[in-house]
Design a protein that fits this description.
The protein is α/β, with parallel strands linked by helices. It is about 45% helix and about 15% strand. Helix 3 links the parallel strand 3 and strand 4. The radius of gyration is 23 Å and the shape is elongated.
Amino acid sequence: MTDDRHYEITICSDSVGETAEAVVKATMRQFDAHQVTTKRIGHIKHEDEIRIIMEAAAKRGGFVAYTLVQPELREMMKEEAIRLGVRAIDIMGPMMEAFIDTFNDSPKRKPGLQHEMDDDYFRRVEAIEFTVKCDDGRDTSSLLKADIILIGVSRTSKTPLSIFLAHKGHKVTNLPLVPEVKPPKELFMLHGSRIIGLIMDPDKLLKIRTERLKAVGLPNGAKYAALDRIVEELEYAQGIMKQLGCPIINVTDKAIEETAGIILGYMS
């Protein structure tokens, strides 16, 4: 984008709107979209709401992305988009139509089914509770109960990755590797395929740790953010990973979602 105008993507849903928002934000990462923001509007029930939303979107510019399972709401969205000249992207509609055409089935047309409290929901809740409890090596006995074990030096995204994977229903524990601390014996009792080693380029890790020191008010000269110390830690960690025979992922400049996708590929 070469001008200085501000743009807004309006995200609409008759449920929460997480699906549409996830698609929009994944798309935004592919562009230099500094002038673009998103506005999510959920739990839309009436056609009048769509009319108001679309008129506001027409004034602001940008476009609308929506997931509406009620046919009358989807039809109103299409009509208003044409009337006002606003681009509206139906994220769920084409997928539903493909399902109907291919499998000769009819949709339930019930918003929010993704968030129903079924067995999958309770499995995710259990996984999240387990993962939070076992973060950063707090409970080494949990290593034997975990679906996925993440190991690596400090600031290699172990905790955010753990939480992301837990939301997918996986019990995850993560363990920091430090040269002065011997890894727990439980780690060597596991099959290497359940363990994932995380590494990062030393220069990138140096920048992250330096920023971390600033955030907590510690001096820049601390050993934690010294390049030679970082190289030492990474070499030690990779030695442990090779000993375990586990997959090793370089997370440098990778989004959490991208790394999680690689990990789940190893698990399948």
